[in-house]
Design brief:
The protein starts with about 20 loop residues before the first helix and ends with a helix. The protein has about 280 residues and is an all-alpha fold. Helix content is about 70%, strand content about 0%. The protein contains 17 helices and no strands. Helix 3 packs across helix 4, helix 4 (about 55-70) packs antiparallel against helix 7 (about 115-140) and helix 5 packs antiparallel against helix 6. InterPro entries: RGS, RGS_sf, RGS_subdomain_2. It comes from Caenorhabditis nigoni. This is RGS domain-containing protein.
């Protein structure tokens, strides 16, 4: 079991092999929510390696211990396991005082009341979902694993489909590296931020907050990552945000312009670049 005191001496978990895994399966781990990757043995192991490298493996370990606890039948064994779990994780998982108090009460009084343990489990799941899983999807570790599985035929299709390039994790990663080399990365970063913004459409507060972050990061005049838009487009976005008129369409006009900018010149140059052609040379049919 995880031991926070011995973190620096712990052996890294092994990388999952790519044997028996096809690209669509691995790509699906980044779709939707964290459940997708946790429900796949290979995906979960890759996520575990990422969490270990991020010094955050205790969150997954705690959830796995809680799942094991639910399945245990022997009362005395179950109580002892719960106490061991509390001793192991209470100093390393980041819980609110209320949830930690309820968890300790449920375990120390030996009631193991699911109602009292539930808030702690929910908070750790939320942390994985909202913080660590998004970083996993963007991580070099995950992208390298995907690249090992990517058939050359997928990458060849990017030459006929700009949308196919943007919608492929590996393709977008290499396009980003190319854009960085020509000092034009901010357009793609804005595009990705808007994709994330649209994914929060069922969470009003998250959409409002992210909309403001995108405005300040990419559209405010003089910002380091400023994306230049036709006259009037930024002003409409600013006015809608000021009026709290924020929905999934907020950045539609801006995205249309940015996609056209990317398609007109950088995309054509990328297809002729060493970045793209070196990748093609590494891939198998």
């Amino acid at each position: 079991m995880f031991d926070g005191k011995e973190r620096s001496n712990r052996e890294a978990p092994p990388m999952p092999s790519t044997e028996g895994v096809e690209y669509p399966r691995a790509a699906s781990w980044a779709a939707g929510n964290c459940t997708n990757v946790l429900n796949d043995d290979k995906g979960k192991q890759l996520f575990r390696v990422f969490l270990f490298q991020s010094l955050a493996e205790e969150n997954l370990g705690f959830l796995e211990a809680m799942e094991r606890l639910k399945k245990m039948k022997n009362g005395d064994e179950k109580v002892q396991f719960a106490k061991d779990t509390l001793n192991t994780y209470q100093g390393s998982i980041n819980l609110s005082s209320g949830s930690m108090k309820a968890l300790r009460n449920a375990i120390n009084t030996e009631t193991l009341d699911p109602e009292e343990m539930g808030p702690a489990i929910k908070e750790v799941k939320r942390l994985l979902e909202n913080d660590q899983f998004p970083r996993f999807r963007r991580s070099e570790l995950y992208l390298q694993y995907l690249e090992e599985l990517l058939p050359r035929s997928y990458a060849e299709k990017w030459a006929q489909s700009f949308e196919g390039l943007l919608n492929n994790h590996v393709g977008r990663h290499h396009f980003r590296l190319f854009l960085r080399s020509i000092h034009a990365e901010e357009n793609l970063r804005f595009w990705e931020a808007v994709v994330e913004f649209r994914s929060t459409r069922h969470k009003a507060s998250a959409m409002n907050n992210l909309g403001r972050v995108i405005l300040n990061t990419y559209l405010a005049e003089g910002t380091a990552n400023e994306v230049f838009l036709p006259f009037g487009v930024r002003q409409v976005i600013e006015r809608r945000i000021q009026d709290n008129n924020i929905d999934i369409t907020l950045f539609d006009e801006a995205i249309k312009h940015v996609e056209q900018v990317l398609r007109n010149d950088p995309y054509v140059r990328f297809l002729q670049s060493a970045q793209y052609n070196t990748l093609l040379g590494k891939l198998n049919y």
